[in-house]
Amino acid sequence: NFFFLFLLSEGGITCPTTEVANSVQRTGGVSAYQVGDNLTFTCSEGFQLNGAQQITCDSSGQWKPQPPQCVPIPDDKIQPSPGSCGVPPAVSNSNVHLADRFITKTSFFSGQKVYYNCDVGYVAAGGRKSRLCNNGKWTPLKLKCQRKLCGSAGDVQNGQFVYTGVEFGDTATAVCDEGFMLVGHATRHCMNNGWSGRNPVCEAAVCEDPPEVSNAEITGLQHEPYTYKSVIRYSCRAGTLVGEREIWCTKHGTWSAPAPECKEITCPSPNVPNAYWTGNHNQKFQYRATIYIECNMGYVMSGPGTVYCERDGRWLPELPKCQRRRFVNQWG
């Protein structure tokens, strides 16, 4: 709908200047037209005329017929014109992409601009965002895009982040101090909207209560929790301790070794032919029991005269042998 002014002057009835969007018609600075004057319209590239191409100023001070409109030509009906350009060529390794409104177009008239945006995770760092179709050739794209900056991923109590970088695509991996264990996801990723996820937590490594051992006493007990480097010691009330006497809580929240055992270890009776032993009056030869072996009269010993019972149930160094003494006839 157009609103027209009736301009009355000393020369008679006139028609006002009218403009049609997206047309190449020019008024030439004329502010009013006389009855009988004509205006002819031509649409800009990519637009088509909807209405009369020529209108006339009539005696009522109005343009007849009404001024036309220049509306966009549907993409499937655009005919390539001399100097037009095809689809803009891709710009490799630039981290930019053509704006959505230009993606479906296949032809562009000379003088038309297209616009670009930075890829996800990138921000403009200088240069124009547009390029121009100039007589069948596209001008170079000057837009520069750089990775977004995420900055610090935050603090980790009792630990720290190890970074590959602080820009889009980089990672921050939490590493706990010795004696602390990670709770949560260790790695955060620098995304388009900042660091992914939440900061993990480093909690003190805690071991379960030390295992009880039959016939053993535990020293070094403390009130829970048993944290990193807590040490406990086992001693046997009866039998021989087999295993580690001391164990400690490791940085992984486990004890450094299985609990030992208190076993009754005995060695077999030291049966040495032609010998007798002294030094142990018990019926059982337990670990560390020591005996002294002597040969009967007329026999000589080959091997150690003192042996002891080892923790594996053997006599060490080894049981001796008693061999009959050889007599030499000195009188020939």
UniProtKB/TrEMBL annotation:
<feature type="domain" description="Sushi">
    <location>
        <begin position="265"/>
        <end position="324"/>
    </location>
</feature>
<feature type="domain" description="Sushi">
    <location>
        <begin position="148"/>
        <end position="204"/>
    </location>
</feature>
<dbReference type="Pfam" id="PF00084">
    <property type="entry name" value="Sushi"/>
</dbReference>
<dbReference type="InterPro" id="IPR050350">
    <property type="entry name" value="Compl-Cell_Adhes-Reg"/>
</dbReference>
<keyword id="KW-0732">Signal</keyword>
<keyword id="KW-0325">Glycoprotein</keyword>
<keyword id="KW-1015">Disulfide bond</keyword>
<keyword id="KW-0677">Repeat</keyword>
<keyword id="KW-0768">Sushi</keyword>
<feature type="domain" description="Sushi">
    <location>
        <begin position="13"/>
        <end position="72"/>
    </location>
</feature>
<dbReference type="InterPro" id="IPR035976">
    <property type="entry name" value="Sushi/SCR/CCP_sf"/>
</dbReference>
<feature type="disulfide bond">
    <location>
        <begin position="295"/>
        <end position="322"/>
    </location>
</feature>
<protein>
    <submittedName>
        <fullName>Sushi, von Willebrand factor type A, EGF and pentraxin domain-containing protein 1-like</fullName>
    </submittedName>
</protein>
<dbReference type="InterPro" id="IPR000436">
    <property type="entry name" value="Sushi_SCR_CCP_dom"/>
</dbReference>
<feature type="domain" description="Sushi">
    <location>
        <begin position="205"/>
        <end position="264"/>
    </location>
</feature>
<feature type="disulfide bond">
    <location>
        <begin position="43"/>
        <end position="70"/>
    </location>
</feature>
<feature type="domain" description="Sushi">
    <location>
        <begin position="83"/>
        <end position="147"/>
    </location>
</feature>
<feature type="disulfide bond">
    <location>
        <begin position="118"/>
        <end position="145"/>
    </location>
</feature>
